[in-house]
Design goal:
The structure holds 3 protein chains of 3 kinds. Chain A is mainly α. Chain A has a domain of about 200 residues. Chain A has 20 helices and 2 strands. In chain A, a hairpin with a 5-residue loop joins β1 and β2. A two-stranded antiparallel ribbon of chain A has the order 1-2. By secondary structure, chain B is mostly helical. Chain B has one domain: Helix Hairpins. Chain B starts with a helix and ends in a 12-residue tail after the last helix. Chain C is mainly alpha-helical. Chain C has a domain of about 220 residues. Chain C is about 75% helix and about 0% strand. Classes of the chains: A mainly alpha, B mainly alpha, C mainly alpha. At the B-C interface, α2 and α3 of B face α6 and α7 of C. Chain B: It is found in: Cell membrane. Chain B: Keywords: Cell membrane, Membrane, Transmembrane, Transmembrane helix.
């Protein structure tokens, strides 16, 4: 059982992907059954393992390729945190996507790559060694490209090209860093920190920088973030996946793995690379929010907001204090829940009312009450209003900053919160308080679209309210930090 | 002494062939040049094989094989030149000067 | 032993049969020959796997009087790759080069040429005698030139003649080196040469042989003949020319440097060879970027992809104590040969399908073809992943092994070549891919049989699978591996 479980987890997404590619366009029922079935089974497996891992069990599976190239799948608490997020949101996004696309063209191709993308994310979460991480990281790049380009019109093809232009040099940097490091230490496993004494500090700093550039492209760290706002040319379910579960999360997750499992907090402090990373994260947080303020398209505003919010996770990792790390890790889940809610809603506004720009939101609160309520919860969570999810993250990050002796971070958090409020509150004001334009029509007669948004909005509220419970994301993040990285 | 003459003649043939290969653009002349180089090498080979005590049969066997190979190559080349001349009206490669 | 001999002789007999038999029986005879040779090649591989390298002294005469043949892991692995490519090419050619479609000249000429080429390649993979290798090389050249010219078009004949000029020049250079070697040592057997006492003329002999082989491998700056020749041939022939033919001269290069005369290598010559390889990667990539026809892009990419393999000269043996494996760079170079062979054949066969469907391989005419021929588009994309060196393809395995060796031996600058070359490959392959996958639907391509469409897809999938299942081929390649592969030159 210990070796089959990681494999099963991977297969729940990989097999539907492999089969879906060969399905005819009109075999909707079979395709949807495969997709939903895979997602449900995966979620079941995850819940099963949550209980096992909480008591300290670990699962491991190994596939040797050439010597030195070993795919190692390993389930530890951190992997499980990421995988629970992606598993739960995969199911919801699938329901949403089925409703969103209806009977549009090229669905087998779309869902094939969609589940391949989730399989890559799963593999990434389960990776127990640097090289397996890299292999799934690349698989993720390759499988998201067709999703971004899905509409095959000029903007989405251009966006896909921009995505590749950023992603491939990023991968090259990552591979370079891995091989450089492993040439001195041998293959790096996440369970045992490598012995870094064979490399001089200057080389280690360069390797660290290359690692951060490599994963930073995916995590959309400024100035490597340009592809993300461009990628909003993709269909709404893809944006939801990209922003909440797959790509940017993979980048942020990579930062956490590299900081804690490859270098270790102590080495990072000794090398003096933690503070520069925290500064990059802070600049990204403020710059992303600032740019979001200038956008008039809803999806673009949300995209820049992602740039900003994902760097909270990076900031938490960079500060290298237990509380900050808890804040960062919990934000991995919280940001996912909140951002996916917002993208679900943006998609509904577009699909059911043709609203793409923020002026269109005027007075739609009464026309589309469920959607607008969910959108409002997501937005307020992002701002960090208690007791919503975002507040918990920011609170722990703030505590962690004090603990790490970096009070300037509080100023960053404050500035970011103000900016968040400045770009989200006007939207809420328009939704609920401004009069509706004469010709604006919208409805919510698509439960497949609205239901996932309601679930994630409720979760945004729930994880905040129940934060004290041990099975909440906060409880889980605390467990990870005390289990693995206790000071 | 005798052998040195053979070896030197072989070397001279190679030199002549290389000159022809570089200086001429007409394909038939180039094929001749290849044959000259080949013959020069075989002559040298034969001379080298006859040095030791008694006669070494291996070079002779190899030279015969080599001549057969060279003949096939020449035949194919001449066939291609004829086809080229039929289809393009010249026995030179397209981007090289048309003079012979 | 029987396996080895039948593996060499079967394609030869099949070629003769394809010429001599009445026209109705030709195709079945050729296909039967293909099938039997595949069986022989599997048989040989199993034998090598079970008992180690298989050595045969022809007629019971041992070197230096007789001639030895030896199938080691390297030779047998190339043999399997060749068999896979040959089967795929045969299956595609059944449709593409049938006499009804391509005319009686191609319909008749292709099969014996393909089978002769196969026999010659197999002979080169196992020959242990420098002169035997020369004869094999010449046979390859003659069949390859004929394959280029087979369409009879003026441009194809000119390209074939130019190819022949370069190839003959290369052969003569190689032959001159062989003659000098024999004059100095009285033997041409690779194993006996390895044990010789070094003579002053050896460096010149090795230099001449190397120069000749570089011309035949189309290493920069001797590459000018390759793109016109490979793109002028019909697509299945191009697949053979690009995927297999340069591998033969590369293999001989590895044999003479790593097995016959390893002690002559100096840091300077190693760097010089690798630098030419690096220049080939850059130059081939840049020129591929400038082409507007698919077959030319793919042909220039061959120039670039062959360049990586030359990094093996400085990098072999570069796996420091930190690594759990030896001979990483050497094995990586061979993985690159195998991966490139499979992926490149897949690409040319895909190009052949496109040409059959719309009568052109200009990128501008190919827009939106993935809609009508999705499997072919997918095949091209998969093959691109291998050429880009992205995981989990075998191209990545090769790149990873070489980069690791570069770092472990402190020559990290060489690692820039695969890293940068991958990005360049992404740039030049993005153009055909984005054309094929564009949305335009104005095209009405001719229908292509389903069985034909699967051929390049299977080949491309194999090039990825070779990476996923690389542990077994990795071990196989160590059978009969020369010491210098692990210790470095």
């Amino acid at each position: 059982m210990t070796t089959t479980l990681p494999l099963l987890l991977l297969m729940t997404s990989l097999l539907p992907a492999a089969v879906t590619f060969f399905l005819a366009q009109d075999s909707h029922i079979l395709r949807n059954t495969l997709q939903l079935g895979g997602a449900v089974i995966k979620l079941g497996l995850i819940v099963w393992m949550l209980f096992a891992v909480a008591t300290g069990a670990t699962y491991e599976a190994e596939f040797p390729l050439a010597p030195g190239l070993v795919i190692l799948l390993r389930i530890d608490a951190l992997a499980l945190l990421f995988i629970s997020l992606s598993g739960a949101l995969w199911l919801l996004t699938t329901i949403y996507a089925i409703a969103y696309f209806g009977t549009k063209a090229e669905l087998s191709r779309f869902f094939g790559f969609f589940s391949l993308c989730v399989a890559a994310t799963t593999g990434l979460a389960l990776s127990g060694s640097l090289i397996s991480f890299f292999i799934f990281f690349e698989l993720l790049t390759l499988s998201t490209w067709p999703l971004v380009a899905h509409k095959q019109n000029k903007p989405s093809l251009a966006a896909a090209k921009v995505y590749f232009t950023y992603a491939l040099p990023g991968s090259a940097a990552l591979l370079w860093a891995i091989i450089w490091l492993e040439s001195a230490t041998g293959p790096v496993l996440f369970t045992e920190p490598p012995d870094l004494s064979g490399l001089d500090p200057a080389a280690l700093r360069a390797i660290f920088a290359l690692f951060i550039i490599g994963v930073g492209v995916k995590a959309a760290l400024v100035p490597l973030h340009g592809w993300l706002p461009a990628a909003m040319a993709a269909p709404a379910p893809v944006s939801a996946l990209l922003h909440a579960v797959a790509v940017v999360k993979a980048g942020a997750f990579g930062v956490v793995r590299i900081v804690y499992d490859v270098f270790g907090a102590e080495n990072m402090t000794a090398l003096g690379v933690g503070v520069p990373l925290a500064i990059v994260a802070s600049v990204t947080i403020v710059w992303g929010s600032f740019r979001a303020l200038q956008q008039d398209e809803i999806k673009k505003r949300l995209a820049f907001s992602t740039v900003s919010q994902v760097s909270y996770i990076v900031l938490g990792a960079a500060l290298a204090s237990p509380l900050a790390m808890i804040g960062g890790l919990v934000h991995l889940v919280h940001q996912g829940l909140m951002k996916i809610t917002l993208f679900f809603c943006a998609g509904i506004y577009d699909e059911r009312a043709g609203i793409k720009r923020i002026e269109g939101l005027n007075g739609m609160g009464k026309q589309m009450p469920w959607t607008s309520a969910c959108f409002s919860i997501g937005a307020m969570g992002m701002i960090g209003l208690p007791p919503l999810a975002g507040f918990i993250s920011k609170f722990y990050l703030g505590l962690g900053a004090m603990e790490a002796g970096a009070p300037w971070v509080l100023a960053v958090l404050l500035a970011s919160t103000l900016l968040n409020a400045a770009y989200f509150l006007p939207l809420l004001y328009r939704l609920w308080f401004l009069p509706r334009a004469e010709d604006a029509r919208g409805d919510e007669r698509a439960s497949g679209l609205v239901l996932p948004a309601v679930v994630t909005a409720a979760a945004t509220l729930g994880v905040g309210l129940l934060a004290a419970s041990p099975i909440s994301p906060l409880g889980w993040a605390t467990l990870i930090v005390t289990q693995g990285y206790g000071p | 002494m005798n052998l040195t003459v053979f070896a030197l003649t072989g070397a001279a043939l190679v030199g002549l062939g290389v000159y022809g290969l570089i200086a001429r653009v007409h394909m038939l002349r180039r094929i001749m040049a290849f044959n000259l180089i080949g013959s020069g090498l075989f002559l040298f080979f034969g001379a080298a094989g006859a040095r030791g005590v008694g006669l070494d049969p291996i070079p002779q066997a190899l030279i015969i094989t080599g001549i057969v190979v060279a003949l096939s190559a020449s035949a194919l080349a001449v066939g291609l030149v004829v086809a080229l001349a039929r289809s393009s009206g010249t026995a030179c490669l397209p981007d090289e000067a048309g003079d012979t | 032993m029987t396996a080895l001999i039948s593996w060499l002789v079967l394609p030869l007999f099949a070629a003769l049969a394809a010429i001599a038999l009445p026209s109705r029986a030709r195709l079945p005879a050729a296909l039967l020959g293909v099938g039997l040779t595949v069986v022989a090649s599997i048989w040989l591989t199993i034998e090598v796997w079970n008992t180690g390298a298989v050595t045969v002294s022809l007629g019971g005469w041992r070197p230096p009087i007789g001639i030895a043949l030896r199938a080691d892991g390297l030779g047998a692995a190339l043999g399997v790759m060749t068999a896979l490519v040959m089967v795929a090419v045969a299956l595609a050619a059944r449709h593409e080069l049938a006499a009804k479609v391509a005319g009686p000249r191609i319909g008749f000429g292709f099969w014996p040429l393909m089978l002769l080429l196969w026999a010659a390649l197999n002979a080169v993979y196992v020959a242990r005698d420098l002169f035997n290798l020369y004869v094999g090389l010449e046979l390859i050249t003659l069949t390859a030139v004929a394959l280029v010219a087979i369409s009879g078009k003026a441009a194809a004949i000119a390209a074939a003649l130019r190819y022949l000029l370069f190839a003959l020049a290369g052969s003569l250079l190689y032959l001159a080196g062989v003659v000098l070697t024999y004059a100095a040592h009285g033997t041409l057997d690779i194993s006996l040469l390895a044990a010789r006492t070094v003579a002053p003329g050896d460096a010149l002999a090795l230099g001449l042989m190397t120069a000749g082989l570089l011309v035949k491998t189309a290493l920069f700056p001797f590459h000018v003949w390759l793109p016109p020749a490979h793109s002028a041939a019909p697509a299945p022939a191009s697949a053979l020319l690009s995927a297999l033919v340069p591998k033969a001269s590369l293999l001989i290069l590895l044999r003479i440097w790593f097995e016959a005369m390893p002690e002559l290598a100096t840091p300077m010559t190693q760097s010089a060879l690798a630098s030419l390889g690096a220049l080939a990667v850059i130059w081939g990539g840049v020129l591929a970027l400038l082409q507007s026809r698919l077959k030319l892009i793919v042909a220039y990419s061959t120039v670039a992809q062959l360049g990586y393999i030359f990094l093996v000269f400085p990098l072999a043996g570069g796996d420091g104590a930190a690594q759990p494996w030896a001979a990483g760079a050497w094995t990586g170079a061979i993985f690159q040969m195998l991966a490139h062979g499979l992926a490149k054949a897949a690409m040319f066969l895909a190009a052949g399908i496109y040409i059959a469907a719309i009568g052109s391989d200009r990128l501008g005419d190919m827009r939106g073809l993935a809609r009508a021929l999705p499997m072919t588009g997918f095949a091209f994309a998969l093959a691109s992943i291998t050429l880009l060196g992205l995981p989990p393809s075998a191209g990545f395995t090769a790149k990873y092994l070489m980069m690791t060796a570069a770092f472990a031996s402190g020559q990290w600058a060489w690692a820039l070549v695969p890293a940068g070359g991958g990005l360049l490959a992404a740039a030049y392959l993005y153009r055909p891919l984005s054309a094929i996958f564009a949305r335009d639907t104005a095209l009405t391509p001719r229908p292509i049989p389903w069985a034909w469409q699967t051929v390049p897809l299977v080949l491309a999938a194999l090039s990825v699978a070779l990476g996923l299942l690389s542990s077994i081929p990795f071990e196989f390649l160590q059978i009969g591996r020369p010491e210098q592969a692990a210790e470095g030159l």
